[in-house]
Amino acid sequence: MAAERQSTEAETAAGQTAVARTAAAGTAAAGTLPPWPYPRTIAHRGAGKLAPENTLAAFRHGASFGYRMFEFDVKLSADGKAVLLHDATLERTTSGRGRADALTLGELAQLDAGSWHSPAYAGEPIPTLAAIAAYTRANGLHVNIEIKPVPGTETRTGAAVALDALALWAGAAVPPLLSSFSEAALEAASRVAPDLPRALLLDTLPADWLDRLARLGCVALDANHRELNQDVIEAAHGAGYRVACYTVNEPDRAAALLGWGVDAVITDAVDRIPPRDGT
């Protein structure tokens, strides 16, 4: 995949200002959709199941299929450093054991985060958010940072990850999209980095889902794709919210959702669902 370089200063300022104004306003006016400078297909945890999730190897693999945006999970180490890891514990995807936030960054860096997937990835490390920022920005790629706190650390994690994202993507033409299932984490992110766009993740749609988006100042709903139909998508758009959905692994389902107007689908199937940019 051809690498992109940074935009001109004018383009950077314009892109940041457009998204920042929407986020700062808290919610878009009904019928007016906020900016969405992101591709319509997003690689889940780097490359879905084709490489060890949430590693640089996965990002490189996903990029080899032409994907230009990546969703990944971030939590804090014992010493407050932002690292990529989905689970609250280490056993499933690393050589470690116990709670992820019980180890310092230095201790986490010694773990093998690749062998669980396949021998080819033995020794692949847990990456830091800073390493992912460096890689994606150097290659013109975009990111959806899911704030994934270890239980009991929602507010602290939301604030720390948002502040790190704000610094690491400073000056970027396209800001990172923050998302979380944790409303407390999103509230904390909003307080410390109000200009970064946010999406609320929902596995099921409660009756007050639109009210929740408004209260959190989100620009988007990020829902389980099984909860979506054309009426829900139109309701979200009509209220001024973008719609993303997860985890869509069948090409026909992805095509249907995109045809209904979903703004982005998150997928493991980077080898079967072609990347799609813009509209």
Query: What general form does the structure show?
Result: globular
CATH homologous superfamily identity: Phosphatidylinositol (PI) phosphodiesterase
- Largest sheet descriptor: 8 strands, parallel, barrel
Number of individual domains? 1
Low-confidence region ranges? 1-28
SSE string, helix = H, strand = E? HEHEEHHEHEHEHEHEHE
Number of helices: 9
| CATH first level | Alpha Beta
Helix content: 25-40%
Distance between the termini: 20 Å
CATH architecture: Alpha-Beta Barrel
Q: What is the CA-based Rg, rounded?
A: 18 Å
Give the oligomer, counting copies of the same chain as homo and different chains as hetero. Answer: single chain
Mean pLDDT: 92
Structural class designation: alpha/beta
The CATH topology corresponds to TIM Barrel
How many strands?
9
Describe the structure.
With 279 residues, this protein is an alpha/beta fold. It has one domain (41-267): TIM Barrel (Alpha-Beta Barrel). Helices cover 33% and strands 16% of the residues. The chain has helices spanning 9-25, 56-64, 105-108, 129-138, 154-168, 183-192, 209-216, 230-238, 251-260, and strands at residues 41-44, 69-76, 82-84, 142-147, 177-180, 198-202, 220-224, 242-246, 264-267. The protein has an 8-stranded parallel barrel with strand order 1-2-4-5-6-7-8-9, surrounded by 7 helices. Helix 5 crosses helix 6. The longest helix is centred in the N-terminal third of the chain and has 17 residues, at 9-25. Residues 1-28 have low confidence and may be disordered. One of its GO terms (biological process) is lipid metabolic process. Its EC number is 3.1.4.46.
